[in-house]
Specification:
Structural class: mainly beta
Largest sheet: 12 strands, mixed
Family: In the C-terminal section; belongs to the peptidyl-alpha-hydroxyglycine alpha-amidating lyase family. In the N-terminal section; belongs to the copper type II ascorbate-dependent monooxygenase family.
Number of domains: 2
Number of helices: 7
Shape: elongated
Strand content: 35-45%
Organism: Panagrellus redivivus
Keywords: Calcium, Copper, Disulfide bond, Glycoprotein, Lyase, Membrane, Metal-binding, Monooxygenase, Multifunctional enzyme, Oxidoreductase, Repeat, Signal, Transmembrane, Transmembrane helix
Bound molecules: 2-acetamido-2-deoxy-beta-D-glucopyranose
Low-confidence stretches: 1-26, 663-759
GO molecular function: copper ion binding; peptidylamidoglycolate lyase activity; peptidylglycine monooxygenase activity
Number of strands: 51
Oligomer: single chain
Catalytic activity: a [peptide]-C-terminal glycine + 2 L-ascorbate + O2 = a [peptide]-C-terminal (2S)-2-hydroxyglycine + 2 monodehydro-L-ascorbate radical + H2O; a [peptide]-C-terminal (2S)-2-hydroxyglycine = a [peptide]-C-terminal amide + glyoxylate
């Protein structure tokens, strides 16, 4: 029986993961083109999967990753003339059928890559070599728990042909490394025969464990100039080339990989296996777009055309070891621990309180969890009359608030209180001074309570008891409440009939009120207007960046506002969920949101996660022991996520724990806490500035496919590009365990390139 369930789940996994997301949005004249996993669950160590999509015509000016190093080892985006397979998703290392060009690579939480002004990668236009995009994702490990991945890359396409096109030139050596040497050199060299001047602006090095230094120089006349030099044991990102550099016709280009083979007893061949080696230097450059491609046979040097010149003249400084940088070396090597989110507890009661429907949850400043439940009351069809008046005006007789202390292994019961005070409990919040705020859809009130021991005293009451209304003095089934830690002002999501958010001062004066009902015509997801609601159901604040997140329940999205009520963006995708019941902003982690009901499209309920700095959900998780039935509230703190359910049979409290290497994942988050940008509505606006200022050369575009053909011709290598472990492996594009993780300590310093630096 278990087997049947497992097989069923596997089928589901297959079905879901075989789709990929490609979504288009527009911002000004730029088109945004998403290439994303559609909820893939890696099944093995070093799981390689690819999604393929036909390229939309345009010019890539920016790559915006939506991925996390705690889940993903690296992502490579290839441009192909033909994808390896006709399907849009496959497992394994295959990428293109025929020529392939790496357009972008991502690892270690690198932020967006914006190309210099007037520089772009052309794709999809008539005559372009790139007609398909294949995104290859390398998962180092299966996830812990039931986790689906939605990582991807947002491409920003300009419709305008740029003055310069970007390309990548690759030096690659196929020579084996002799054993027993402290320093062994693999030399590569080629003359540049093209006409257009090349402007290198970034480089990347790649070897396996034996590499010590990789450098490249250009010799023009008698003068040798360094293109780049890096320790390949450091995280293998693209590094900016500091000095403006030009490579002209007949210049001599050379690169050397220095290896340490002193502990080897046999020659080590080049190849993809961990026991093999690789020797690569990638040079990213731009050139005038109107001139013919200087590398019709591939932008690659797989040769040593003037070995004597290299042997005699190669500058010694290109071969010396770089100063040790233990942190980077560590980061480059650490094989990450598996990532995951796993259910740890599923509780029907805490202490002597058996949960009724759990409608709300909140943490106080001591990280105690307040659980707001309905005791024996159930909100049913006859709970309200046609005028939204509560029919049975008897309160919940049980203690409606239960306080627990999550201590890692369990949730310790602290106390419970609040009997006979609430009618249909809904939302709860606890401020830093310990005041408790509740919304009661039964009374249509929002109340601030002073809690002394286990007794509650109302200190501020908003709304008129049992009287629904649309005006400033009334609510109608108010759903969510959140309080700013800055000034104690109160935000209320109101709620089931009013479709608005109200902002009150600490003393209860109405400051602002916004939102309209979504019209029936705008219910279609693509036509949803920002700022219009269909049941604002939960609300969560990010005080640091003054962002407010509202679960726009029946519109199936999270809307992002600033504190002035300006709608900034929305996060949603009707293919995966049709409603969003609850949303929580968790400092240090980002956003968690959960739908409350299956839809006809998607029957599986997950908690979705939008990591800090991202504009879209990147992964989702659900229990392993059972499926969610009616999740109603999600709240997260530290490494734990709590979900409350409202099943008719009573409430259920889940605790999930995140498995994430300490310090990982968080590192990237410094880059854009405020940058939750739109994904659905098309109006990508405020908030995105944080990200776009990170102009970082991370990785690369490169034209390798043609180069490979050329190389193969020269070396009489026959390669079926679908076959794993081919020459492709040597170029560092193929499945291999490079462990080039993670920790982006260096990314701000030596990897950041401003557009202005490049010209
Ligand atoms: C879009 O293109 C038009 C015509 O080329 C130009 O006038 C306009 O400024 C562009 N708009 C943006 C937002 O770039
Ligand atoms: C490679 O270059 C280095 C440095 O110039 C030199 O010492 C070595 O002899 C060269 N190796 C070959 C095989 O030419
Ligand atoms: C969160 O972390 C803090 C500090 O490490 C700890 O004191 C607290 O108990 C944790 N809270 C939860 C809910 O795990």
């Amino acid at each position: 029986m278990h087997t049947a369930i497992v097989i069923g789940l596997l089928c589901l996994v297959g079905a879901v993961s075989a789709r990929h997301i490609t979504k288009r949005e527009t911002s000004g004249n730029e088109t945004i083109f998403n290439v994303q996993m559609s909820g893939y669950t890696p099944t093995q160590d070093d799981d390689y999967v690819s999604v393929a999509i036909r390229a939309k015509p345009g010019y890539i000016v920016k790559f915006e990753p939506a991925a996390g190093a705690e889940r993903i080892h690296h992502i490579l985006l290839y441009g192909c003339t033909q994808p390896a397979f006709s399907s849009d998703f496959w497992k394994g290392g295959a990428t293109c059928n025929g020529p392939s060009h790496i357009l972008y690579a991502w690892a270690r939480n690198a932020p967006s890559l914006e190309l210099p002004e007037d520089v772009a990668f052309p794709i999809g236009n008539p005559g372009d070599a790139v007609q398909y995009l294949v995104m290859q994702v390398h998962y180092a490990h299966p996830f812990v728990g039931n986790v689906r991945d939605f990582s991807g890359i947002k491409l920003h396409l300009s419709p305008v042909k740029p003055k310069y096109v970007a390309q990548v030139y690759l030096f690659v050596s196929g020579e084996p490394i002799p054993p027993g040497l402290d320093a062994s050199y693999n030399n590569m060299s080629c003359f540049y025969r093209g006409d257009p001047v090349l402007h290198p602006f970034a480089f990347r090095t790649h070897t396996h464990a034996m590499g010590r230094v990789v450098s490249a120089f250009v010799k023009s006349g008698d003068e040798w100039t360094q293109i780049g030099k890096r320790n390949p044991q450091w995280p293998q990102l693209f590094q900016k080339i500091e000095k403006p550099l030009e490579i002209k016709k007949n210049d001599f280009m050379s690169a050397i990989c220095r290896f340490d083979s002193h502990d080897k007893t046999e020659a080590v061949p080049m190849g993809s296996m961990g026991s093999n080696e690789m020797c690569n230097f990638y040079m990213m450059f731009y050139r005038l777009a109107d001139e013919p491609d200087p590398f019709p046979y591939g932008a690659m040097c797989g040769d040593n055309e003037a070995s004597n010149v290299v042997a005699k003249e190669y500058p010694a400084e290109g071969l010396t070891l770089l100063p040790s940088h233990p942190e980077w070396e560590h980061a480059g090597h650490q094989a990450g621990a598996p990532f995951g989110v796993k259910d740890k507890l599923a509780l029907h009661q805490l202490g002597d309180v058996t949960f009724g429907q759990i409608s709300g949850m909140a943490f106080d400043s001591n990280d105690q969890l307040y659980i707001f439940h309905r005791g024996s009351k159930v909100w049913g069809a006859y709970t309200f009359d046609a005028n939204n008046q509560l029919t049975d005006k008897t309160p919940v007789s049980e203690n409606a608030i239960v306080v627990g202390n999550p201590n890692g292994d369990s949730i310790e019961f602290v106390k419970s209180f609040g009997a006979d005070l609430f009618f249909i409990p809904h939302g709860i919040f606890v401020d830093d001074s310990g005041y408790v705020y509740t919304t009661d859809v039964g009374t249509h009130q929002v109340i601030k309570w002073k809690l002394s021991g286990s007794s509650l005293a109302a200190v501020l009451t908003l709304g008129e008891r049992f009287v629904p209304g649309p005006d400033e003095g009334h609510f109608c089934k108010p759903a969510g409440v959140a309080v700013s830690r800055h000034d104690g002002s109160i935000f209320v999501a109101d709620g089931y009939c009013n479709n608005r958010v109200l902002h009150f001062s600490k003393s209860g004066r109405l400051l602002h009120n916004w939102g309209t009902a979504s019209t029936a015509a705008s219910r279609e997801v693509s036509r949803l207007t920002l700022g219009a609601f269909n049941l604002p159901h939960d609300i969560s604040l990010d005080d640091e960046h003054e962002r407010m997140y509202v679960a726009d329940r029946e519109n199936g999205r999270v809307q992002v506002f600033d504190y002035a009520g300006n709608a900034l963006s929305a996060i949603g995708d009707s293919r995966f969920f049709g409603n969003v019941y609850s949303v929580d902003y968790c400092p240090g982690h980002g956003l968690f949101f959960v739908p409350g009901l299956p839809t006809s499209e998607e029957t599986e309920l997950n908690v979705y996660t939008v990591p800090l700095g991202s504009s879209n959900f990147q992964y989702a998780f659900r229990p392993t022991q059972a499926e969610f039935k009616r999740p109603h509230i999600v709240r997260a703190r530290n490494q734990s996520i709590f979900v409350g359910e409202i099943s008719d049979g009573g409430g259920l409290l889940w605790q999930f724990d995140m498995f994430e290497e300490a310090g990982r994942g968080k590192k990237a988050m410094h880059m854009g806490g405020a940058a939750m940008v739109s994904s659905e509505s098309g109006s990508v606006n405020a908030g995105s500035s944080t990200q776009s200022t990170f102009v970082v050369i991370l990785i690369v575009g490169l034209a390798v496919g043609m180069a490979l053909l050329y190389y193969m011709r020269r070396h009489r290598v026959t390669v079926n590009s679908r076959t794993p472990h081919t020459l492709l492996d040597r170029a560092g594009f193929k499945p291999l365990r490079t462990d080039d993780l993670d920790d982006d300590d260096d990314s701000d310093d030596d990897l950041a390139i401003k557009a202005s630096d490049l010209k």
